[in-house]
Specification:
This protein is of the alpha+beta class and about 350 residues long. The chain has helices at about 1-35, 40-50, 55-60, 65-75, 105-110, 155-165, 225-230, 290-300, and strands at about 75-80, 120-125, 130-135, 140-145, 170, 190-195, 195-200, 205-210, 215-220, 230-240, 240-245, 245-250, 250, 260-270, 275-280, 305-310, 315-320, 320-325, 340-345. The longest helix is centred in the first third of the chain and has 35 residues, at about 1-35.
Length: about 350
């Protein structure tokens, strides 16, 4: 009789535990359902998933097309409609190191690392993301590198840095990336290298981003042929343009670009080139940046013209032929293979001691 009572108590106890578990599971499911239908979550999730292209199915798993289109319609960017004025850029040379700095960020940028007169790497530690600012003091040291097997296979930024005896590199324009398996072989948009159109693809949706013979960052919607006639030497196609003539684009919501790893190239009025490499899609470490986040950082360093480059898993940074950032994919083999990269080559043979990565 005593054994039967004990068994009944155990059964009741197990039943209570199971009931509590079911109730908690129900509450969790209700909480998730409430969460995924809040505006804040829908804005974040839909724009982030849709901007990756290869992961757009995640948004369509949770939401219908009408909901997706409604969210995207209120998250967009308005680029400035004025043409870039290259006359505003005046390359100052050594004067930049002796002037009075307007902020702690400018002072940080121009405080050279010992033994390095070519570039400065500054660590970013923001609330929701981490990354790097790269300042290149002389724009003559910046050029475009293109995969040696373009049309067949891309190369990692590391490889392009090594092949060109460069010091630093970041990824450049986009490429065909069906279901996230693209290997960098087929660039998205046109590519100009050394004043020649080396890849023609007029189906790209961005603008040309590159440097002229005078080493000024040129952002234009011209055809590649006209851009070359106007002095473009190296260029890739992507976007959007973040700042033109000191005026940032207008971002509605999160701009429709979500939160992601990012790569940016820009130039100050004194000619100094600023590159951003933002890490993301790494929960617990770095989520990624919005378009507004990028503009905030660029304004800190007084960037006058800037454009967004390919991001996501392609956001890669190399220093001295070694992977320097933490990409969201492919880090174990040196980063994804991409079509092209902006590299720093030290043409003038100035001292350039590689930084120690201690973070």
């Amino acid at each position: 009789m005593l054994r039967k009572k004990k068994k009944k108590k155990k059964l009741r106890f197990k039943f209570k535990k199971f009931t509590v578990f079911v109730l908690l599971l129900d509450l969790l499911c209700i909480g998730v359902l409430v969460l995924i239908h809040t505006d804040k979550f829908m804005n974040f999730f839909i724009t982030t998933a849709m901007t990756t292209k290869s992961h757009a199915y995640l948004a369509r798993t949770l939401y219908d097309e009408d909901t997706i289109n409604r969210i995207l319609a209120r998250n967009y960017v308005e680029e400035t409609d004025e043409d870039i004025n290259l006359d505003d850029i005046s390359i100052n040379g050594e004067d930049m190191f002796t002037k009075k700095y307007s902020s702690k960020y400018e002072r940080e940028l121009f405080k050279k690392d010992p033994g390095n007169d070519v570039y400065k790497i500054i660590r970013l530690e923001e609330k929701s993301f981490k990354g790097y600012v790269i300042g290149v003091y002389d724009p003559r040291d910046v050029e475009l590198a293109v995969s040696s097997r373009l049309g067949v296979m891309g190369e990692s930024v590391n490889t392009m840095v090594k092949n060109n005896n460069a010091l630093v590199g970041i990824n450049g324009g986009g490429f065909r990336d069906v279901d996230g398996w693209g290997n960098g072989s087929f660039p998205h948009g046109n590519i100009i290298e050394d004043g020649k159109l080396v890849w023609e693809n007029n189906r790209g949706s961005g603008e040309l981003i590159g440097f002229t013979k005078d080493h000024k960052l040129f952002l234009t919607s011209e055809t590649p042929q006209q851009a070359i006639a106007d002095g473009m030497m190296d260029a890739v196609e992507f976007g959007p343009n973040l700042i033109v003539n000191g005026k940032p684009l207008t971002v509605h919501g999160d701009g429709g670009w979500g939160i992601a790893p990012r790569t940016v190239i820009g130039q100050r009025k004194d000619g100094v080139v600023i590159m951003l490499s933002i890490e993301g899609r790494l929960p617990g470490y770095s989520i990624g940046a919005t378009m507004n986040d990028l503009i905030t950082i660029l304004k800190r360093y007084k960037v006058y013209n800037a454009a967004n480059l390919d991001g996501g898993a392609s956001a890669t940074m190399s220093v001295e032929g070694e992977l320097f950032n933490r990409p969201s994919a492919g880090g174990e083999y040196g980063g994804r293979t991409v079509s092209n990269a902006w590299i720093v080559t030290n043409k003038l043979n100035k001292p350039a001691k590689a930084p120690v990565k201690n973070y």
